[in-house]
Amino acid sequence: MECNCNSSLGPFPSTYWSRMLFPDWAYKPAWSPGSRQVQLWHFLLELLGRGEGGAITWGSEWGEFVIRDPERLAKLWGERKGKPHMNYDKLSRALRYYYNKRILHKTKGKRFTYKFNFSKLILVNYPTNSTENLIPFLTLTLFFSVCMLSVDSCSVNFSSPFPAVQLPQTSPLSPDTSNPKAVSPLFWPTSLRN
DNA sequence: CCCGGAATAG
DNA sequence: CTATTCCGGG
């Protein structure tokens, strides 16, 4: 199967996608149900999606990004979190904590260059006590969001086997959770596997 | 620059 | 728990 985002689904207004870019589970760690503290990976994807000022941009490979202005990125991050003394040294330490969780890894040799692991990103942050079969939908949510916000023409080949899969019929803003099995768990792009 | 340990906060 | 802060080391 091929996904051509621009022709099949888009284009959509950016506000539309920014609202569905990160579902509720992305904002809060499982241990603090009430809080909605923004996490660093979330913030980065947000900037990457908006193409914010060139402080951070996508790299050549899938999921790879380059920090073009480290101190400015740190300043933006500090403003978001209310940490006026944030700098790249401290921000990069937070990025390094993602290595163990396999959310992120460094592309060695390339300065200021890191690479997302989107599948791990989902698995790590998905609340385990919730319904399992919602994962495919959330996968699609994150994948398509990143896909559509990051590149002009997004074309990805999906691997077989590929059972009958249909996208949710309702609006992504109010997903039909009563029919989560509309999307198969096998719906994983090859580029997201590892 | 990049790496992780250690202490600490929320 | 996720960072933040600080820092010795490569």
Write a structural description.
The chain is an alpha+beta fold and 194 residues long. The protein has a domain at 28-147: Arc Repressor Mutant, subunit A (Orthogonal Bundle). Helices cover 40% and strands 10% of the residues. It contains eight helices and six strands. It has helices at 5-8, 14-21, 24-27, 40-50, 70-81, 88-101, 118-125, 135-150; strands at residues 2-4, 56-58, 64-67, 104-106, 113-116, 155-157. The protein has a four-stranded antiparallel beta sheet with strand order 2-3-5-4. Strands 1-6 form a two-stranded antiparallel ribbon. Strand 2 and strand 3 (64-67) form a beta hairpin. It is globular and about 30 Å long. The two termini are 19 Å apart. The model is unreliable at 1-20 and 150-194 (pLDDT under 50). The structure holds a DNA duplex (10 and 10 nucleotides).
Entry summary:
With 194 residues, the chain is α+β, with helices and mostly antiparallel strands. 40% of the residues lie in helices and 10% in strands.
Please specify the SSE layout and strand pairing.
Layout: E1 2-4, H1 5-8, H2 14-21, H3 24-27, H4 40-50, E2 56-58, E3 64-67, H5 70-81, H6 88-101, E4 104-106, E5 113-116, H7 118-125, H8 135-150, E6 155-157
Antiparallel strand pairs: 1-6, 2-3, 3-5, 4-5
Helix pairs in contact: 2-8, 4-8, 7-8
This protein binds a DNA duplex (10 and 10 nucleotides) through helix 6.
